[in-house]
## 1
Amino acid sequence: MTTLNRLDLEALWMPFTANRQFKQAPRLLARAQGMEYFTPEGRRVLDGVAGLWCVNAGHGREEITAAVTRQLATMDYAPQFQMGHPPGFALATELAALMPAGLDRVFFTNSGSESVDTALKIAIAYHRCRGDGARTRLIGRERGYHGVGFGGISVGGIVANRRMWSANLIPGVDHLRHTHDLARNAYSRGQPTHGAELADDLERLVALHDASTIAAVIVEPIAGSTGVLLPPQGYLERLRAICDAHGILLIFDEVITGFGRTGAPFAAQEFAVTPDMITMAKGLTNGCVPMGAVAVKQSIHDAFMQGPPGAIELFHGYTYSAHPLACAAGLATLDIYRREGLLTRAKTLAKRWEDAVHGLRGRPHVIDTRNYGLIAGIELEPRPGKPGARAFDVFLDCFERGLLIRTTGDTIALSPPLIIEPAHIEEMFGRLAEALARVA
Ligand SMILES: Cc1ncc(COP(=O)(O)O)c(C=O)c1O
């Protein structure tokens, strides 16, 4: 690993990366344990982002390694089409028990993107199964991120992810306005006070398109990828009420908020708003084997179960749906979460975390700090004409000095493994404060 040269780097086209810049000065990770990564040279890097919001139980968990190894030796792969295997059923049953009441049917995928496209397809097909086939329209939200499938980028609201494919986005999609409002809500602790009325955008879209054409609304309870955007108090409740009033399904994309990030197993429980479907991935296997899932209300599932017995009810699925290794990883991961109380641990640390996040107020370049559970957003003043450049320099500085953060635009996002200890919190924010002072 230490001897990688320029040529060794050429073949890999890296995702969401400035490839040419990266290959001039590569940043490599070679090993991970607990709260830490190590570079090929053995330099320690504190993990402030749980890899990419996924390693919630911390790195290198031996129980997961053992479970996956055992499964690999027992049965490496088995098809799911018209066949089944015990770990798939076992994981679905355990997941269903973690979900908000009623969301107890589970469809497995391999990623967040696939979960989103699966949920959108189920929503449209559900209405059709009930004889309401005109409900095909999907509503997303500005600044939403729902992965990179054509469905996901269509309901998503990030222009860079859509621009190249603007003529190919799926038709019949509209967007709510986003809820980020620095003028009214800067430096909020937890949910911001202002903005519940933004949910009324859905009423506006109903008035424009008619409810009878709308299948579903999809939102992230907390939007991560465009810089940690929190739901204003009352917003999600209002969205739920408007969906109910018009027969529209509500989908929560919990790819990053699932598995304890907010202080409850899922944000739906934390915010006490129950959607009709939840998409998830990442923390499901502690990030170590790719896997996603969609949890669906039983009534939605049952609407598909009306045809003649012997007929396939949903023409959808993946070769690797419920892959045995992913199921083994998922079962071992859920077991750790349960035994160590990790799905609610963020709540016990939230106050200390919040104080540390807001301790950055007044530091150079900082124009907002915001937090929820074990999530932080630290927004910086952009350099004139160079959006994102300042935050990226902070990212580079932190990495050089042993802290992995994530930046999106000019916002720094933090989402550490849920095993984090107070000393790590101190170290993380200490380093970040130093980096902010160093970067111009
Ligand atoms: C809310 C949300 N949805 C979907 C995705 C896509 O997940 P994946 O990269 O596993 O396809 C992400 C990824 O970060 C996400 O944050």
Note: The mean pLDDT is 97.
## 2
Amino acid sequence: MDLFSFTEICLHQLKMSGVHEGEKLVVLTQGSERLDYADAFMAAGQRLGARMYHMRLPAVPPTGAWAVGQTGLAAMPDAVDALKKADMLIDCIFLLFSPEQMAIQAAGTRILTAVEPPELLARMLPTREIREKVEIGGEMMARAKVMRITSPHGTDVTYKLNTYPTITEYACTDEPGRWDHWPSGFVFTGGDDDGVDGQIVVAPGDILLPQNMYVRDPITYTIEKGWVTDIRGGLDAELVKSYMAAFNDPRGMGMSHVGWGMNPHAKWHGMVPGEFPGGMGMEPRSFYGNVMFSTGPNNELGGPNDTPCHLDIPMRGCSLFLDDEPVVIDGDIVVKELQMERH
Ligand SMILES: [Fe+2]
């Protein structure tokens, strides 16, 4: 994407994030990655009269795995202090799950993560409608005490919801201390530490992230008191188990966030060769009517598990109930106030 077009979509983003004259913004990158993002955001911010600079960390060697929560900022408390003094941080590294991100948010700096390919950012711009619907979904989730998920493939799992807050993601952020991720469009929370029980059958066409692949044969998870106790199936199950075992951390078997997708611009089918623009899979996390569960850390929600072993698994065709009231039925949102037309 050329700088002019990239600047235009960043301008839309910063307006949706309430950026105004005199605000202090920092764009964070590392190594030679996403330097064009910094250029585009800085050009956009200047047009809104923001005071901006670009903080660039040294490159880090690739680890081969998606180890969440470990960032180059950890060794640089001075840099963290500078980011705490900003009104808004545009994170082009992916700081999520790190203690540094939590400290920066706690200081009142709002954070927008932008790491996905520019063509995806352009196709999934934040809108007022998505924000409004996601916020309504978040309120419904926050009131609920129990979430139950079922599917025709045999999923039947219950999350008790007495502990953790609800998090909304609608791809822009205009409130102090609030984090969001562009692109997105979903809501999630976490079950009580010992309050998730049942079975989840990940079915063909469901998606493994960070593997960025469609499941071909069912993977059956057994969950007892908040922990995965068994993963069974064919090749896909073996891939998941082998990936998790490589972290050598039993806390990877914890149950992480859970919720549903609400973005009518996100496509389920786009993660195929020739179409997939690369990136970390925010489109499949967001597609309208998906139900996403995940395993691993819950520190993002305030919980004790900070394992770096994290999988997100968006599923099609599920039904989701809050206190026995249907929200998603067979992969379609059935609550009138949450419905949007798919594009
Ligand atoms: Fe996740």
Note: The first strand starts at residue 24 and ends at 30.
